[in-house]
Amino acid sequence: RVIARDGHFHRAGRDGKRVRIWGVNLCFGACFPTHADATRVAKRLAAFGINSVRFHHMDNQKFPGGIWDATDPMKLSPEALDRLDYFIDQLARRGIWSNINLHVSRSHSRHLNLPSPGAELNYDKIVDIFTPKLIDAQKKFARDLLTRTNKYRKTTYAADPAIAFVEITNED
């Protein structure tokens, strides 16, 4: 377990040793590698001393470029979820924490047939905190992702100590 103290991360417990987060971003389809690639990438990242992976822009597209189902843009892709679950498990086995980004580049308004907020408000940013349908869509996405059980880790993302960070919204 990691705690924040005096502006830094530390191990919880007796030694209280300072922890540094040394991470990388993965975007779009890179968040969903095949099982064989997930194992190789996790090993490689661990060999370089990486201890955190940020799953960024995975909310933008349908699978294989993103987390959404190819036939229903309001449902999560079972294959994307399986790959993500496996990858997070492989990372965790090597001491690498995950950082899940919830709202980065998803435009729920497009899939809910809502008026476009305009080009200056890319990805429903700002209007997503005032528009009830957008709020509900984002809450559903967060609930569907964070409360389902990762079959490889046997826990939900919400309860998994390998999920160190959950970014609710990026650059809002």
What's this entry about, in short?
Helices cover 28% and strands 22% of the residues. The protein contains 4 helices and 9 strands; from the N terminus they run ββββαβαβααβββ. The two termini are 29 Å apart.
Secondary structure: elements and pairs:
Blueprint: E1 2-5, E2 8-11, E3 18-19, E4 23-27, H1 35-47, E5 52-56, H2 78-93, E6 97-103, H3 108-111, H4 132-146, E7 149-150, E8 155-156, E9 163-169
Parallel strand pairs: 4-5, 5-6, 6-9
Antiparallel strand pairs: 1-2, 2-3, 7-8
Helix pairs in contact: 1-2
Highlighted features:
four-stranded parallel sheet, alpha/beta, 9 strands, 172 residues, three-stranded antiparallel sheet
Describe this structure in words.
It contains 4 helices and 9 strands; from the N terminus they run ββββαβαβααβββ. The protein has helices at residues 35-47, 78-93, 108-111, 132-146, and strands at residues 2-5, 8-11, 18-19, 23-27, 52-56, 97-103, 149-150, 155-156, 163-169. Strands 4-5-6-9 form a 4-stranded parallel β-sheet. The chain is globular, with a radius of gyration of 17 Å. The chain starts with a strand and ends with a strand. The mean pLDDT is 94.
Low-confidence stretches: none
Helix-and-strand structural type: alpha/beta
What proportion strand? 15-25%
How is the biggest beta sheet arranged?
Answer: 4 strands, parallel
- Give the terminus-to-terminus CA distance: 29 Å
Indicate the mean pLDDT. 94
Radius of gyration: 17 Å
* Tally of strands: 9
Taken from the alpha-carbon principal axes, the silhouette is globular
Query: What is the N-to-C succession of helices and strands?
Result: EEEEHEHEHHEEE
Helix percent reads: 25-40%
Enumerate the strands of the largest sheet in spatial order, edge to edge or round the barrel.
4-5-6-9
**Count of DSSP-assigned helices:** 4
